[in-house]
Amino acid sequence: MSRDLTSGNPLKQLALFIWPVLLGNLFQQLYNIADTSIVGRFLGPASLAAIGSTGSLTFMVIGFAMGLCLGFCIPVARAFGAKDIAALRLYLSNIIALTIAISVVLSIGSALLTNRILQTMQTPDDMFDDARAYISILFSGIFVTMAYNILANLSRSIGDSRTPLIFLIAATFVNIALDLLFILAFGWGVSGAAIATVISQAASGIACFIYMTRRFPELRISRKEFRLDARVMGELLYMGVPMALQFSITAVGSIIMQACVNQYGSSIAAAVTAGSKVQMILTTPLDSIGMSMATYVSQNLGARRLDRIRTGVNQTLLASLVLSVLGFFGALKLGPPLALLFLDASQTEILAHIQQYLMYSASCLYVLASLMILRNALQGLGYSVPAMAAGLFELIARAVVGLVFVRSIGFSAICISNPAAWFAADIFLIPAYAMAMRRMKRRAAVEGWVTTSSQRV
After folding, report:
1. Are 137 and 107 spatial neighbours (Cβ–Cβ below 8 Å)?
2. If 0-12 CB within 10 Å is exposed, 13-18 middle and 19+ buried, where does residue 439 land?
3. Which of 99, 110, 150, 299 is surrounded by the most beta carbons within 10 Å?
4. pTM
5. How is 115-164 classified by DSSP, letter by letter?
6. How far is CA 422 from CA 193, 287, 355, 416, 429, in A?
7. Tens digit of pLDDT at every position of the chain (457 positions)
8. What residues contact 235, with CB distance under 8 A and at least 6 apart?
9. How many angstroms separate the CA atoms of 43 and 51, rounded?
10. In the chain, where are the structural domains located?
11. Of the candidates 271, 270, 423, which has an alpha carbon nearest to the alpha carbon of residue 356?
């Protein structure tokens, strides 16, 4: 069911839209955790560290692809909010063409550079072969990743956050079953985990495509309607490329930190890998709210409802404060048992490092929440370049912490790298959002938008 986010109580509408996104993100974490948990418990800390050592590199490439997908679908949400189905289908035609072309380029480019980047990251010899095998398989499936994410974001653009959830749940169980089959029964090691991920994503994407084209007439394109338009492609790239670069720029900072982590050996690398996975579970509600803001703001921008944009952002910032406090206490109580998903209880030193890593991050959750909400609100408003620039601030913060403080402070500096990056991004995003809203207010005054509740019909 598609949902029009341009009417009704903003917080209520957002809550109804967000909960399937939240569940979807939780299953996405389960989807990712299945690989690391099974690998960590059945193949050992060295293999777990090998997968973890590829995380920042994977995020740089796959994150770039996912950023494109998210950015491409923002104009679709705007067209849906404006009830302009012809424009929506024109965007969709050009999204299909761009997705095919970009996925081919990314797959070839990443295959050529993988070895060199892993060497630059100082990946230890006992992790190198596993890391290369795992990441090479994931990169070969970039088209699958992009296709699924385009479909999921298209569905959310027209207000349907349930359909991606259904197929993601199915893919999660397929992924877990294939992990166990390929790793335990076939003995394929970390390669089996990567193959399971690609196959499950492909199955989910195909099923999602069949369902969505039958269920939502807005997304059906006839041969006559399918046409390429240079102006539309330019608009899509203007929205998508900065968002993609934002992901990749953030990942470059993570690669710098990963190189620092690798210098401490596989035990510390395993602790950071597991700690990062637990952190992602705890921050899922905040990520879900942030992701939903792009669709919410885009639809209301199309409907010329500046009042709803302002109210929705303010209400979600307040709700995120409550969730951040709950997340902190959740890290205290749930952090240790969640860490046992990846490691045996006998590995006490690694588990202690994981808990320290989580405490630093959990104490700064509201900083992350503000970052996610404001960045996605800027994207929804069409300010994709300022949203990307926030990623530069994250990169600089991680680079400073990694290159300056890790050697002198040690593991504690690794623990503060993420909070430092979040603070740096917010320093830029808060005034950038305020400036964007002032500009939108001036535009609204000229074009006669609804800017206050007293103007509502």
Report:
1. no
2. exposed
3. 299
4. 0.71
5. HHHHHHTT--HHHHHHHHHHHHHHHHTHHHHHHHHHHHHHHHHTT--HHH
6. 31, 13, 20, 10, 10
7. 556 677 788 888 888 778 877 777 777 776 666 667 787 777 777 777 777 767 777 777 888 888 888 888 888 888 887 888 888 889 999 999 999 999 999 888 888 888 887 887 777 777 788 888 888 888 888 998 888 888 888 887 877 778 777 888 888 888 889 988 998 888 888 888 889 989 988 988 888 888 888 887 877 888 888 888 999 999 999 888 887 887 777 777 777 777 777 777 767 777 777 788 788 878 888 888 887 888 888 888 888 888 889 999 999 999 899 989 988 888 888 887 877 777 767 777 788 888 888 888 888 999 999 999 999 899 888 887 887 888 888 888 888 888 888 777 878 888 888 899 999 999 999 999 999 999 988 888 877 776 665 555 4
8. 75
9. 11
10. 10-448
11. 271
Q: What is the dihedral of CA 204, 206, 207, 210, to 10 degrees?
A: 150
The answer to whether residues 124 and 266 touch, using CB atoms and an 8 Å cutoff, is yes
Query: Is the separation of the CB atoms in 441 and 451 below 8 Å?
Result: yes
DSSP E strand boundaries for 2-69 = none
In this structure, are residues 19 and 160 in contact, taking their beta carbons and an 8 Å threshold? no
